[in-house]
Amino acid sequence: MGNTPSTHAVRQANLQRLLNPRSIAVVGASVDAAKAGSQALLSLKSFPGTLVAVHPREKEIQGVTCYPTFAELPEPVDLAILAIPAQHCVQAAKDAAARGVGGVFIISGGFGETGGQGAKLQEQLAEVCRSTGLRLLGPNTSGFINTHERCVASFVPGVDQLKKGSVAVVAQSGGVNLSISFLLDQLGKGISLAVGLGNAVDVNSADVIEMLGTASSTKAIALHLEGVPNGRALNEALRKVTPFKPVVALVAGRADIGEFAVSHTGNLMGSHARTVSALQQAGVVVVNSTEELAQAAAALADGRLPPKQKNGIGLVTGQAGPGLLIVDGLKCADVDVPLLSPDSIKGIEALLPPMTFVKNPVDTGRPSPTFPQVVTAVAQDQNVDAVLVFGLSEPAVLNPVEALKPAKAATGKPVIFGSLGLAHDLQGPFEELMHEGIPAVRSPERLVLVAAALDADSRAQWRLANSEGGSRTANNDQPRLQGPFNEDTAKALLAKYGVSSPARRLCIGRAEALKAFEELRKPLVVKIAADDVPHKTEVGGVFLNVRDQAGMEKALASIERIPTETPGRFLVEEMAGEGVELIVGAVRDASWGPCVVIGLGGILAEAVSDSSVRLAPLTELDAQEMLSSLRGKKVLDGFRHLPKCDRASIAKVAIALGDLLEEHPEIAEVEINPLRVHADGALALDALVVLKETT
To answer: What is the pTM assigned to this prediction?
Structure first.
C-alpha cells in the first residue's frame, strides 16, 4: 500500500476494528474442548456482536455458525482470531485481507521466536500487513480483553471474569498482560483494555498507546516493555498522550548493559537506562515491579496532580511508627514533605491533645472525633498539594470515608488512604472509598508508592510543558563527514558546535613536534595521534606536564615505539588548569536514535559508573536535570579542593553533542573524556568521533 496519509488512515481504522470489534470470526474453531480454538469460542460466549467461525467441514460449533472459507462469510468481520498452526497463518491472513477483515489475532507460536522457517513466516505476515493495511496482533500471544465491548479475544480460562474498569494494560508479553490485569482486578480497579503484543509483527506499543489517547473508557495506562525495536515512534506517541492521560511503565532487563566496542560512552548508558530515560522524557512514570505498576496506574486513574516542578505532600497518621516509615520513604523517593504554615499548625493544635507532632506529618495518636477536621486542615494548607492518611483499621473510632471525604470536597486535592487490618474489616470501607474516587491501599509502603507516582507524573508533565525541543533546528543538509577521525580532527569538528579545547598542534614528524614545543605555552601534553589508537592512555601514548627539551624528547621517543598504522604523528597540546573531570558522550542507538550521556569522567568512568542519559535533542532543562541526578553531583559545587563548576558550560557541551548526531546521521558515536570543567567554562581534553560502518 505504501506509506501515505491514506494508508495511515486505513491502518488506524483497522486497528480500531481489531481492538474494538463488532464482529468476530474464529478460524480453527474446534469441537475438541482442549484446543485453543474451542477455548477462544468459549471465551467469546458473552460477546454481543456477530460471532462466526471458519471451518472447512463443520456447519456449527458451540452454537456458532461455521463457514468453509473467508470468501464465503456473509460480510467482512472486524476481527479474525487464527487458532491454527503457524504454517497456515500467512495464507489465512491473505484471505482475511482479501475479504476486508480489519485485523487478525494469531494465537500460535512458531514464528520469529523460533528462528529459521518461523522467522520467514513472520516476515511474510509483516509483508501482508504492509501491502494490504490488515492489522495483526501477535503472533505468539494470549490476545486481548476489551471489557467495555465485552470482547474476550483470548484462550486463557477465567479472563472473561475480569472487572470492567478504566485502566488499560499494554504489555509486550501476553503473560504479563494478564498478570497485571489480575492485579488490577484484585485492587478492585478493573481494566478497560488489556493487550498482549507478543512478537509485535505489526501492532506495537506505540500503535496501541496512540489509540488509547482518544479512548474515553481509559483514564490511565499501564505499560510493560521488554525490547523496543522502534523507540522514537514510541517516544513520540507517549509525548502526545501523557499530557492528557497518565502512563506508568515497567521495563524488563535492569541488568542489561549495552555493548559498544570502541568507547566508554555506550557502557555508561545500558539499554535499560536508555529506555527508562526515554520514557521519563516522554512524561511516563517508571516503576520496578508488576505490583507497583498496577497500584500506581490504579491510583492515577482516580486523578492526577496538575503539572508542577515539585509537590508538597501532607501526612496525617493515627500511629507514629508507620508515619515515620512513610515520611522516610517519601524523602528517599525525593518527594517533598514541607512544614505546614503557622496558621495551619495553630489550627491543628486546637484539634488535638498536647504533645502530638503537628508540623507535618501530623501524628494524631489514636484517631479521635476531630480526625476529619485535622485531615481537612492539612489539605487546606498552602504548602500541601496532596494528603496521605494512614490509620490501622479501628472501625469503632475511624470511618475512613467520613474522615477523608470532607477534605477532598473542600479542597479538590487528592486524598489517599492507607491502612492494614483484618480483611473483612477493610473490604467495606475500601469499596466505599473507591466509589468516592479516593484511592485506598494496604500498607505504608504502598502509600509511599502512590504519592511518589502522583508527584512523578506531575513533575514529568511540568518538564514536558517547559521543554521546547533541542537547542536549535537540526540542519540535515550538512555535508557528510569522511573518516577516520583522530583527536585533532574530532576536536576541530566539535569546535564548530561551540565545544572548546586547549590550544594544540597536530605534528607530522619530530621536527614539527619540536617546533610546537617551542611555540606553545608550557606545560604541555604530548599524545600519539594515530587513527587506529582511540584510547591513547591504554597504550602509554599520553605524556603530561612536559616542561623541558629532555621531557619532550623522551615523550616523542616513547610514542614512536607504539605500533600503529600511521607512525610519527603527535598531538602537542597546552595543559589545562585544574578542574573536575566528566565524560560527555553521545551514541546513536538503533531504536532510540541519538542519546547523550553525562557522567563522572577520566580513567574511572566505567568503574564508578555514575552517569545520566537522555534522548537528543536536549533542552537546557534536560541537561541540568542530568547533572542534578548524578550521585557525585557534589563534586560540581566546590567540593573540598575542587573548583565550583560552571554547570551551564557542561549543559552547552551536552546539547552540542546531541545536535551533532542529529545533523550527521553518519556518526555512530562521539565522546569527550575527559571534559575538564572549572568555574569559567569547560574544555574537551580528549575527543573521539566514530562513523558508522558502511556496508
So the answer is: 0.91
